[in-house]
Design goal:
heterodimer, A: Neuraminidase, B: globular
Chain lengths: ~350, ~350
């Protein structure tokens, strides 16, 4: 009769791939370690997102506190469990954004768009939220389920169905902004919005800059154009869309209409991506270690946009310069990265020293 | 609704019966009583803070007292050596769900073991997180009932209701895990898995545990495990090889080893939850032992008034003559001043 905090979570995790390219040069790097300075009463938890704006200010999306389920109400309602924190460029705490937001429960990613708006993705509330520069809500995609079906959730963990399976439609998803555990958001030069959706659905949803649904592509599977837990999404200056197709151990590349262009299968299990700005863009991809193991994977690859691997750095672990399941990379500056780690509750600031 | 209520009552009755059978009278006979006094009004809390079930207590090198308690949320409080409230550590922490144990390592880092989040959190002396072990289940797929069938084998880096943590002189980390797994896990000081003893299956044989509930390590690196539901304490060497058992001290709920050249081992035959009939007569005492198993004496008894114990869940024995005990059912921490000089020198096995 015990209700166990589920061991069965592991069911449905995509197999971790170590099929990465051999003979990749190591990129020397340093870590400023756990450099964020927080007030005494605020603690980071699992850091699912880190992003900087044009002023170098740092936004961290962290799972902390406790999600709470109400009892004695007509239906069980749930809230809490994730916070969005802002730091200055030196790592000093500035403010909290979206305190007690209705849309924050199980944070998954934070990104900053070219106009410095902050976008959060939450896979429990199934909401993508655009915050303006003042930290106020500017636009919403998706809607939180009114009530949570807890307990009695379907078995499944990362990549599986989960409590909100059925919130959207598994696989191809609804032709709308009804998400099922979305994972990431990005924009093209015209401001169109792309959401990787996600752990429940297996599709990419595209909206115009005003949030009007345009189309979505993909369904669950391993063929080109299909996805198994698409976990990260980025767009280059030409408008090509790169998707971390984590469960299929590949990066897929599409044009902005969702036509499959190519795939990269030599960088392990991509969990998150980042593309640098500027005339020569680079692609970073993390072969993040699984959340239940620090003895495999963990390295981050630096690539040309065409898939050529330039080098790699890091390994799984809990020490500085080791990574505990990187879930987000910020690469606004080409050789100074921020990485958000889940199982070690850290954000590290990295300086790369690529050889000439 | 009525049938649900009846079912709940039946369930509670079943659980109560279970704990009734769990109470164990220690086999050790003629153990000298160590006189002691309990310091009244020890912890002084601000008016808006309350302890709930006091699951863990530990002191640091300055004598500050850390209490890990189940109140509305699980919280970790620090008091000075006089019991004055200092601060809260880990307020709103992702890993604080259901307190089980707190320990302070030789460098004054504070380690909290949470059996709700399945995590062990290491705070530095400033109260900031420096390492976490285990992972809280992701609630987007939570909670779900235990699937029928056997528990799957343990993961290297994940726990199932872990209970306690200890370190050897090299800084290796030992974790008792726990209520669902029945194993002891050894990690290096950087949190990398080295070895485990026991498994996901409970058992009473050599190499097996049934609810390893507390853990301590001596200066030689030997590991002492409170094998609670097996009514014994298990001693392992530093590589987790089986050495011996002490089975004359009732149910070993929690263990503590004092520092210094002559180390003492303390274990509590705590009275069972629910205070079933007759339990106060045969449980509640704490044993002071030599590391080799010889019993130096015992003190304490079940009871609700100061000086009596209501399910001692944890002890601090930094000073072997000054013991802190955390009690589940009295929501209380007591400071006990032992007076061993008045005990006869006779030791018994």
């Amino acid at each position: 009769m015990k209700i166990l905090l589920a061991v069965a979570l592991l069911v449905g995790i995509p197999a971790f791939s170590q099929t990465s390219q051999s003979n990749v040069p190591e990129i020397p790097f340093d870590s400023a370690g756990d450099f964020l300075k927080l007030p005494d009463n605020i603690y980071l938890g699992e850091n699912v997102g880190v992003a900087t704006n044009s002023k170098g200010e740092i936004f961290v999306f962290t799972r902390t506190g406790q999600a709470t389920l109400t009892l004695g109400t007509s239906r069980p309602f749930a809230h809490g469990g994730t916070r969005l924190l802002e730091f200055d460029r030196s790592g000093k705490f500035v403010r909290e954004i979206g305190k007690d937001s209705y849309g924050f429960m199980d944070g998954q990613e934070v990104r900053v768009d070219p106009q410095d708006n902050i976008w959060t993705v939450d896979q429990m509330t199934n909401m993508v939220i655009k915050w303006d520069l003042n930290g106020r809500v500017a636009m919403l995609l998706g809607r939180k389920a009114e009530s949570e079906r807890i307990p009695g959730a379907a078995a499944g963990g990362e990549g599986g169905g989960g409590a909100n399976a059925g919130r959207g439609l598994p696989g191809a998803g609804a032709q709308s902004d009804i998400f099922n555990r979305p994972t990431d958001v990005t924009w093209d030069a015209a401001g169109n919005i792309y959401v990787s959706d996600g752990n429940g659905n297996s599709r990419i949803a595209k909206f115009d800059k005003d949030g009007k649904f345009i189309k979505s592509w993909g369904s669950r599977g391993s063929e080109p154009g299909q996805f198994n837990a698409p976990y990260g999404i980025v767009i280059d200056a030409q408008g090509l869309v790169y998707v971390a197709d984590r469960g299929n151990n590949r990066i897929q590349v599409f044009d902005s209409d969702g036509n499959f262009k190519t795939q990269y299968t030599n960088v392990g299990t991509p969990r998150t991506l980042c593309i640098t700005p500027g005339p020569h863009q680079y692609l970073y991809s993390s072969n993040s270690n699984p959340t239940n193991d620090i003895d495999v994977g963990g390295e981050i690859y630096k690539m040309e946009l065409n898939g050529q691997v330039l080098g790699k750095f890091g390994t799984a672990g809990r020490l500085p310069k080791e990574f505990g399941t990187v879930n987000a990379i910020d690469c606004r500056s080409n050789n100074q990265l921020y990485v958000a780690e889940m199982i070690t509750w850290r954000v590290q600031k990295l300086s790369l020293h690529p050889q000439k | 609704m009525r049938s649900h209520f009846c079912f709940a009552v039946a369930l509670i009755a079943l659980l109560a019966a279970g704990s009734l059978f769990a109470q164990t009278k220690a086999k050790a006979q003629n153990v000298p009583e160590i006189p002691y006094t309990s310091v009244p009004n020890l912890l002084k809390l601000p008016p808006d803070l309350y302890l709930g079930e006091a699951m863990g207590v530990a002191t640091n090198s300055k004598g500050h007292i850390f209490v890990f308690t189940r109140s509305a949320n699980t919280r970790l409080f620090e008091f000075d050596q006089n019991g004055n409230y200092v601060r809260e550590i880990g307020q709103g922490l992702y890993g604080f769900s259901f307190a089980h144990s707190v320990r302070v390592d030789p460098q004054d880092n504070i380690w909290a073991v949470d059996e709700g989040s399945n995590m062990i959190v290491k705070f530095n002396p400033a109260g900031r997180v420096v390492m976490v072990l285990g992972r809280k289940p992701e609630f987007v797929a939570q909670p779900i009932p235990v699937p029928p069938g056997p528990t799957p084998p343990p993961e290297k880096y994940e726990f199932r209701r872990p209970t306690d943590v200890a370190w050897d002189p090299q800084g290796n980390i030992f974790i008792s895990d726990g209520y669902v797994n029945h194993r002891v896990v050894k990690f290096d000081k950087n949190g990398r898995f080295l070895k485990q003893a026991g498994s996901e299956k409970p058992g009473s044989g050599v190499g097996q545990f049934n609810l390893p509930h507390g853990i301590a390590v001596d200066l030689q690196g030997n590991v002492y495990v409170a094998d609670r539901s097996n009514h014994r304490m298990v001693v392992l060497d530093n590589d987790l090889n089986w050495k011996t058992v002490y089975d004359n001290i009732g149910d070993s709920w929690t263990v503590c080893i004092s520092p210094g050249p002559h180390q003492y081992l303390f274990t509590s035959n705590s009275n069972p939850n629910g205070n079933p009939p007759g339990s106060w007569a045969v449980t509640g005492e704490i044993y002071k032992m030599e590391l080799g198993g010889a019993i130096a004496g015992k003190f304490g008894h079940a009871g609700k008034q100061l000086g009596g114990f209501q399910v001692v869940h944890m002890m601090d024995c930094r000073n072997p003559d000054q013991i802190y005990v955390a009690e589940i059912e009295s929501w209380r921490v007591q400071k006990l001043l032992l007076h061993p000089e008045s005990v006869e020198k006779s030791s018994v096995r």
